[in-house]
Amino acid sequence: MELVETLLMELEAILNVSNDNIVVTDGDGIVLRVSKKCEEIYGGDAAFFLGKSVRDLEEQGIFTPSVTARVLKEKKEVQVMQTAAKGGKVMATGIPVFSHDKRLIRIISFSHDLTEIQRLKEDYDQLQARMDQYEVQLEGLRASKEIVLKSKNMQKIWDLVNRVAKSDATVVLLGESGVGKTMFARALHNRSGRQKEAFIEVNCGAIPPALFESEMFGYEAGAFTGASQKGKAGMIELADQGTLFLDEIGELSMDMQVKLLKVLEEKQVRRIGGHQVKKVDFRLLAATNNHLEEMVKKGRFREDLFYRLSVVPITVPPLRDRKEDIIQMAHYFLSKFNQKYETGKVFHHDALDLFHQYNWPGNVREFENVIERLVVTMDSNIIMAEQVPFYHSNQKVETKKEEMTILDSGFTTLEDALEKVEREWICRAFRQCKTTYEMAELLGISQPTVVRRLKKYKINS
């Protein structure tokens, strides 16, 4: 008798501490015992369930459906998804217990409320959606760092890049050498649906003509003398699913133009010395500093390839035509190289003014190289105008211009001439800068002085 009481106490303890709802019925489905968890999942206190048939409880919508009723019918372990009276989702498992003579004497069911799990999944989905949104925002921040710009014409180009990036349209980037065409090509790839795939860049003017075909199309083992015994995949094949960027495409020979056009039309490539044709899917970007239309007229560039490339032409202007970008770019490159070389260099305002005056025949590439040279070669932390490589040649031109402007202007007094010069400097800084603090930094004077000079010369538009 004492053993029976002990076993019953143990059973009650198990029922009360279990995180699952436990229901025990007899062989006819009459409820004998329930755990306290039953109250949370199905509603009502434990006493309500005792002595009731699971079939009746099912009809009342408490067990929907009843896993115990299914076990009574099928005489085997059953698992079902229930809808509890409170509306939550419940995973229930029913296990039959048979006597020695194979009579069904008990059914034990375990059920677990999945509402919390479902809520956690919904929270996870919301968090994932938010992370996707943040990723888009971060991508926008990355975009802003790829190409530094301030001028309106460059902002329009950047807007166009963002619009066409998501498509697979062929883009040809036009402009002088060094204007940043490669940066735009990478930006187009990074914003496309192919951003996780390869970005294959080929400089058509840097590969010797004798090697160009094997580099572009690849070759099979032993295809020619000196060929690798393993063969080699070409640039076109490597760009499969990604982006193929052909820089200086105007340097392509007529023979290679024909072969490239064939690949673009058929979307397949065959290695040199091979027989197998491989399907390729890539987005084509191209760049050139040549006038392709003129080359077409002179018979140096195929007209059909020209129209293939010119789906979306984007002309990147030279740096001398977007001088509003120069101050911002100077600080951008300075920050980049300060970080790279662990220095803390700053510009004197005269150096910034010299950058603004210079025509930059090498464009952005020359600008970046000049800044890097200054960072690594100058001992002082302040980069002065006279340390800039083209200072002396530029200074002679500017000095002569200033002398002619001042001496030939008809001023009667030195004070009038000085005011004229001061007003021109204030006007130029006003055009270049967004705030009076930036103007003060550029001019080497205090911000209150800038405000007073603006009022003095009525510069407000």
UniProtKB/TrEMBL annotation:
Alphabetically ordered keywords of this record: Aromatic hydrocarbons catabolism, ATP-binding, Coiled coil, Nucleotide-binding
CDD domains registered for this protein in UniProt: AAA, PAS
Metal-binding is among the record's keywords: no
Matches recorded under PANTHER family: C4-DICARBOXYLATE TRANSPORT TRANSCRIPTIONAL REGULATORY PROTEIN DCTD, TRANSCRIPTIONAL REGULATORY PROTEIN
Record-given protein name: HTH-type transcriptional regulatory protein TyrR
Pfam family, any one: PAS_9
Sigma-54 factor interaction domain mapped to chain residues: 147-376
GO biological-process terms attached to the record: regulation of DNA-templated transcription
Coiled coil region boundaries: 117-144
Gene Ontology terms, MF aspect: ATP binding; DNA binding
